[in-house]
Amino acid sequence: MLERLSWKRLLLELLLACLPALAISLLIGYLPWLLLLSVLALLGWHFANILRLSHWLWIDRSMTPPGGRGSWEPLFYGIYQMQARNRRRRRELGHLIKRFRSGAESLPDALVLTTEEGSIFWCNGLAQQMLGLRWPEDNGQNILNLLRYPEFTRYLRQREFTRPLMLVLNSQRHLEFRVMSYSEGQWLLVARDVTQMHQLEGARRNFFANVSHELRTPLTVLGGYLEMMETSEMEGVRRQKALQTMQDQARRMDGLVKQLLTLARIEAAPMRGRDEQVDIPAMLRRLEDEAATLSQGHHLLQFSTDPHLWVYGNEEQLHSAFSNLVYNAINHTPDGTQIDIAWLNTPKGAEFRVRDNGPGIAAEHISRLTERFYRVDKARSRQTGGSGLGLAIVKHALSHHHSRLEIRSQPGDETCFSFVLPPELIVSVESSQNALLH
C-alpha cells in the first residue's frame, strides 16, 4: 500500500538529488554550481511530472493514471482513487435517481417537483398527461403560468396545505391536489384523478334516487287502495279491480327487487374461468317455451340454434343475458312483430342475435340503453312491467364473459341486439357430447 506524500519524503528526495553533487564536488570542487544543477534537475523532473499529470487529466482522460516515481507516485494514485470514488458515487446517485423516477412513474398520481416560488424542476409522465406539462421544455417554468386556475393560485399562495384542493380542469377532469414539503425550499405537488370516483358517486346518487322513485309509485298505489279499503267498503267489480291492481304493483316491486339482486350478484361475482360447461341449446329450448307463453301468440317467433354449440361460463349469468334480450323483444314490440333469435358458431366466436322488424329505436337512445333505469318509452315500460334494468344486467353478464352488447336499429325497419362470445369459450363437440353422456 502506498504511503501518503509528506514533507519528510520531499526533503529526502532533495537530499538524494544533492548527494551526487556532494560526491562530485569532493573530486573537482564547484560545490555551489553542482548543487544548483542538482536542484534544477529536480525541478525539471517535477515540471515533467506536472505536464504528464495535466496531459492525463485534460487530454488522455484514461482510467489508468501515468506511472509515477518518488513523491509523484502517491499523488497519481491518490487522484486515481479520488476519481474512482467520484465515479462510484455518481453511479450510485444515478441508480438512486433512476429508482426514484421509476417508482414515481409507476405511481397512479401526477408528481411535480417545484421550488417554493413555483418553478418546475421535474415532473413524471402522468403529470404531463393529466396537467398538460411538457418535459423538459417546461423545466424552470412557473407552474402558476401553466395551470391558470384562480383556485389553484390561491391554494399555493395561501400555503395552507393541510387539506387537499379539488379542481375541475377545462377538460372536465376532476383532480385532487396535495402539496407537501420535499426538501428545504422545495415542494412536492401530487395530483390524483378522481373523475371516476366523482362519476361513481353521481351514479350512486342517481341509482338510489331511481330505486326510490320506482318503489314509491307501487307503494303509493298499494297504500292508497289499502286506505280506501279501510275507510270504506269495496265490493264487487270495484273490489276486484283494486285487488288486481295491488297484485300487479306487488309483482312489479317483486320483479324490481329480483332484478336488483341479480344485477348486484353479477357485479360482485368474480371473473369465471373455463371450469363450467353451459348447454346453451338446452337453455334456448326452455327459453323458447317461456317466450311463447309470454307472447301468447301475438308475435312470430323463430329460433335458429346450433345444437352442438356449448360454451364455458356462468350459466346463471348467461341465462340472464339471453332471457332479457328475448323478453325485451317481446315486451317492447307491437303485436304481429317477427322476432328472429339465432345462436350460431361464426369465425369470430359464438354469436347470439335477437332481431325484430318492430318500430326500432332512435339513434339518440342507443348509447344509453344499458344504463340502469333508462327507458326509451317510460309509459310502455310501466305497462309491460319493465324496470329499465334488463340491459344493464346483460351488459355486466357479458363483461364477465369477455364480450359486449352490440345494438343496431333502423327506425321503422328493424332492431338487432347481438353479442359474440370469444372462440376460447367455445366447448369442443367431443367435450359437449361427453357432458351429455354423463
What does this structure look like?
This protein has about 450 residues and is an alpha+beta fold. The chain folds into four domains: about 5-90, no CATH class; about 105-195, 2-Layer Sandwich (Beta-Lactamase), CATH 3.30.450.20; about 195-270, Helix Hairpins; about 275-435, Histidine kinase-like ATPase, C-terminal domain (Heat Shock Protein 90, 2-Layer Sandwich), CATH 3.30.565. It is about 55% helix and about 15% strand. The chain has 14 helices and twelve strands. It has a five-stranded antiparallel beta sheet. Helix 1 (about 5-30) crosses helix 2.
CATH superfamily (homologous) name of the largest domain: Histidine kinase-like ATPase, C-terminal domain
The largest sheet, given as strand count, sense and whether it forms a barrel, is: 5 strands, antiparallel
Strand/helix succession? HHHEEHHHEEEHHEHEEHEEHHHEEH
Query: What would you report as the Rg, rounded to the nearest angstrom?
Result: 42 Å
In the residues, how many domains can be counted?
4
| Contiguous runs where pLDDT drops below 50 for at least 5 residues | 379-385
CATH fold label of the largest domain: Heat Shock Protein 90
The number of helical segments is 14
CATH architecture of the largest domain: 2-Layer Sandwich
Distance between the termini: 84 Å
Q: CATH class of the largest domain, please?
A: Alpha Beta
